[in-house]
Task: inverse folding
């Protein structure tokens, strides 16, 4: 029972009254109304909408503690209920200290209807409110003008009562829907406060550095459960207006930021494990818990949490950790302290149905959110310009956390593909900005939301890996332990991090200047290209961009790990000037090759003189294992991107794929497939593509053979990367007509077709087997798959069948399927775009999809008119391989007598949109036109060279 509810709200006399009754939020509110009737708030003054130069709260008031009551007016089971209300009401008391004399209180408040306001001093005396203003700009300020001046070092209380809507916008306190056993509709009320949404739930100092303690009480219907950040302290049942309600009071939180506060009201069930110092529960829909879908997340959570406790040398400070799987969330997961909320697809694993990729994703997301319990929750960035201090560390340590619980996966290596390789590609296109921006450049909620990007997450993690490697892992970890202990329950900025890492380096006698080095990476855009001439030993750096004209005159402090042929010794260097500078360590002797950035621990690309490239290629072809596996992938990725930027010939890049005939490791194969994808998109439409097809068939056949023993039994190897490469092998081999693969797929499909209940196909293999068999079959196979799709009871198999149906080569079936995509009774609206785009994925079907879109544009825009993302995805997806001035062709389709080049078609389609066209559609079509022009130019420059190369190398030797 919340006995202290009114301690900061009223006098001792009022307290006696309150203690005499059941303390509910409504009771408290009524007491306040009775005591201070004059303070029921009128309509606020609305300030002009002009944005100020500074949108931050003044530092005159510092919050210390909040007491919050929320009543959630929601029935989770709406059947036969007439009083369903999607709203909440509540009151909040914030205790704050005045550090600078002022007659004004500035606090955040948005989309709330204030019904009561009272300001009191530490002696409970009322301070009259002269006026207050609700700003209608992005500041979201509630500005309260007082009759008296607040005194320095004095403590005050602001009491407010309010109500607001339970919204569907995935922000603040919102509604999420789900179906119980796929039938009865259910509702939950859940919160998402990051980054600036707490102000939508209660008036608060909604900035990360304004940490406070939160005491929360939730009033909810008696057939529901309420959770918050901390453990339940007390729960009582009361009657309010003839209805039974529960009042759940929670223990005070640690000192924390408003964006980490969380509440949820639902009727879920949970898996529980008691670890002694804390209890971990994973909550989900009752049928998901009963089916064991939360078991994997529940099992690994405790192991990862204990691993982080050890590596950070700080215990998890709360007695409980709740994890919730909800149907809708803004993101994959939200790290609220003690109450992590996940999008259910990111945390529920279905044994026998979910793929290895799903299991890996769950492990990574859980590890990411658990790392936040230290990086973000325990130590929080001072302001949002340093968001990377939260997200880069959570991303980096997710790899270590997963590696701990799944040691056979070798998951740490995948940071090269998922973060480093990904960001090197993205930043080469000149569309990004530094990791660290100045504080005054990030002010509005729009500015803040813009910080949640791949630079913050992926580049940040890439740089942390580079720094850890350069300092040594032990020095890096010692510096982080010192940093976390120094700023626990407080806030820090990047300078604080550099300081503690520098101290750790100094203790270990490392002559490293951490801040000087890292500011060249965190305060500058992009990354360098390191060029090494092994004949002279010259090494230099320059800004790497695909478009040379956009390069800037930048210099980085570049840590270089280098090895030479015949030696396993790795030498270290730090290049701090543009160069070229001559260093003996980079000079080769005779046929000795030089390999820099070993295992891609540094965030940059490397180019060599042509003779060294040839020596590296010769090593790959004779004994590729002499070069570390990640470096094999790196050589492929660097070569293709250097060719794209016109530093090397495209034939050199293609030469890096020749050794794959002997390669069985995932990273080199994944990198090659990714880089060959664009070439395939461009060439697949032309007859000469046969040479590329023959080459890839020759290269992948041995890889298919390597995994055939598993594949024909529909099983998978133990290693995660081996499982991924098995998928690559089956996908490529079946796509490029390796006979054994196509026979395996059609035989397996036919066995499953005879008895779907008895033939088990491994989830990793289903998509490729279904697609290959439907492509090789006719109407009978398609109709069977369509029936199975309609009758599928689980969404995982349903999705695989839906996409596999797009693989048919029959124009008649494809036309039928395209028509079905616009029938919501057959294909869900959410699946329409991906289905059409999947049909357009193959060259021979893209005109069919494009013609369908043009013919049905009015209907499509009616369906998705307000969903700009879907329209954009549709246009971008269907037009991605447009590359020829020639007419798009399709069998059995009536074409105009005069061929119309695809570029002209796009331009005409844009013109047809008219003056009232949706701006998003116009921008997307303009992008598609620009990309098509780029594709045409690329084809003119490279098509013949590439086809000649494939013609030569497609012949078996």
Result:
């Amino acid at each position: 029972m919340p006995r202290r509810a009114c301690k900061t709200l009223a006098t001792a006399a009022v307290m006696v009254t309150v203690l005499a009754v059941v303390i509910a939020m409504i009771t408290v509110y009524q007491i306040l109304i009775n005591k201070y009737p004059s303070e029921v708030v009128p309509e606020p003054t609305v300030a002009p909408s002009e944005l100020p130069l500074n949108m931050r709260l003044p530092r005159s008031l510092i919050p210390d503690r909040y007491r919050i009551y929320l009543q959630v007016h929601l029935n989770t089971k709406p059947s036969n209920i007439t009083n369903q209300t999607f709203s909440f009401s509540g009151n909040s008391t914030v205790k704050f200290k005045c550090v600078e004399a002022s007659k004004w209180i500035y606090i955040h408040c948005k989309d709330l209807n204030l019904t009561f306001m009272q300001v009191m001093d530490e002696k409970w005396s009322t301070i009259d409110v002269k006026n207050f203003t609700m700003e209608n700009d992005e500041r979201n300020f509630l500005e309260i003008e007082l009759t008296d001046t607040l005194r320095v070092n004095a403590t005050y209380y602001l009491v407010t009562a309010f109500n607001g809507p339970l919204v569907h916008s995935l922000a603040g306190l919102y509604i999420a829907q789900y179906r119980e056993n796929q039938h009865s509709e259910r509702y939950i009320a859940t919160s998402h406060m990051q980054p600036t949404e707490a102000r939508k739930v209660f008036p608060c100092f909604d900035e990360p550095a304004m940490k406070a303690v939160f005491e929360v009480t939730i009033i909810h219907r008696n057939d529901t459960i309420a959770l918050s950040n901390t453990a339940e302290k007390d729960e009582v049942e009361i009657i309010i207006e003839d209805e039974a309600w529960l009042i759940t009071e929670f223990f005070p939180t640690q000192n924390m930021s408003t964006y980490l506060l969380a509440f949820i009201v639902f009727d879920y069930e949970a898996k529980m494990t008691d670890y002694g110092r804390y209890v971990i529960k994973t909550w989900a829909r009752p049928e998901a818990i009963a089916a064991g879908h939360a078991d994997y997340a529940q099992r690994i959570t405790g192991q990862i949490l204990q691993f982080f406790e050890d590596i950070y040398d700080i215990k998890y400070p709360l007695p409980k950790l709740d994890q919730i799987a909800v149907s809708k969330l803004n993101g994959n997961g939200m790290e609220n302290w003690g109450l992590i909320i996940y999008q259910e697809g990111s945390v529920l694993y279905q044994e026998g149905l979910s793929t290895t990729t799903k299991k890996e994703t769950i492990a990574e997301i859980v590890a990411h959110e658990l790392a936040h319990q230290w990086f973000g929750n325990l130590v929080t960035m001072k302001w949002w310009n340093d968001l990377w201090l939260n997200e880069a560390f959570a991303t980096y340590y997710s790899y270590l956390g997963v590696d701990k619980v799944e040691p056979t996966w070798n998951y740490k290596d995948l940071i090269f593909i998922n973060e480093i390789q990904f960001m090197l590609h993205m930043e080469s296109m000149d569309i990004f900005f530094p990791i660290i921006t100045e504080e005054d450049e990030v002010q509005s909620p729009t500015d803040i939301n813009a910080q949640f990007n791949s630079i913050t997450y992926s580049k940040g993690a890439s740089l942390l890996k580079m720094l850890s490697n350069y300092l040594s892992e032990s020095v890096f970890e010692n510096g982080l332990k010192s940093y976390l202990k120094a700023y626990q329950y407080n806030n820090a900025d990047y300078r604080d991090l550099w300081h503690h890492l520098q101290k750790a380096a100094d203790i270990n006698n490392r002559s490293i200047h951490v801040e000087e080095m890292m500011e060249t990476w965190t305060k500058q855009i992009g990354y360098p290209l390191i060029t090494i001439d092994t004949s002279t030993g010259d090494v230099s750096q320059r800004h790497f961009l695909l478009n040379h004209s956009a390069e800037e005159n930048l210099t980085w402090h570049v840590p270089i790990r280098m090895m030479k042929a015949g030696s396993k010794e790795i030498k270290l260097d730090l290049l701090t000037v543009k160069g070229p500078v001559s260093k003996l360590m980079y000079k080769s002797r005779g046929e000795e090759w030089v390999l820099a950035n070993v295992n891609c621990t540094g965030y940059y690309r490397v180019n060599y003189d042509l003779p060294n490239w040839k020596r590296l290629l010769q090593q790959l072809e004779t004994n590729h294992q002499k070069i570390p596996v990640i470096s094999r992938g790196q050589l492929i990725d660097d070569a293709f991107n250097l060719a794209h930027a016109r530093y090397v010939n495209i034939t050199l890049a293609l030469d890096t794929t020749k050794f794959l005939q002997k390669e069985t490791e995932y990273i080199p194969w994944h990198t090659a497939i990714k880089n060959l994808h664009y070439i395939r998109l461009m060439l697949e439409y032309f007859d000469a593509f046969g040479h590329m097809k023959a080459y890839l068939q020759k290269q992948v056949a041995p890889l298919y053979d390597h995994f055939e023993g598993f594949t024909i039994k529909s099983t998978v190897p133990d290693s995660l990367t081996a499982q991924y490469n098995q998928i690559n092998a089956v996908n490529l081999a079946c796509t490029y007509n390796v006979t054994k693969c196509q026979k395996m797929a059609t035989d397996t499909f036919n066995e499953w077709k005879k008895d779907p209940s008895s033939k088990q196909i491994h989830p990793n293999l289903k998509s490729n087997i279904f697609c290959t068999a439907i492509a090789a079959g006719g109407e009978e196979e398609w109709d069977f798959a369509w029936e199975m799709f309609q009758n599928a009871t689980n969404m995982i198999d349903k999705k695989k069948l839906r996409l596999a149906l797009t693989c048919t080569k029959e124009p008649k079936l494809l036309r039928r399927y395209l028509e079905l995509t616009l029938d919501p009774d057959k294909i869900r609206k959410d699946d329409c775009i991906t289905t059409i785009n999947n049909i357009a994925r193959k060259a021979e079907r893209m005109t069919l999809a494009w013609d369908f879109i043009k013919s049905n544009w009015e209907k499509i825009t009616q369906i998705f008119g307000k969903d700009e993302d879907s329209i954009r995805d549709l246009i971008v997806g269907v037009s991605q391989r447009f590359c020829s001035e020639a007419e798009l062709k399709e069998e059995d389709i009536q074409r105009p007598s005069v061929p119309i080049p695809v570029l002209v078609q796009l331009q005409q389609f844009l013109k047809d949109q008219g003056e009232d066209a949706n701006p998003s559609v116009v921008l997307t079509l303009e992008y598609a036109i620009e990309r098509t022009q780029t594709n045409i130019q690329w084809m003119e420059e490279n098509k013949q060279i590439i086809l000649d190369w494939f013609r030569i190398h497609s012949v078996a030797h």
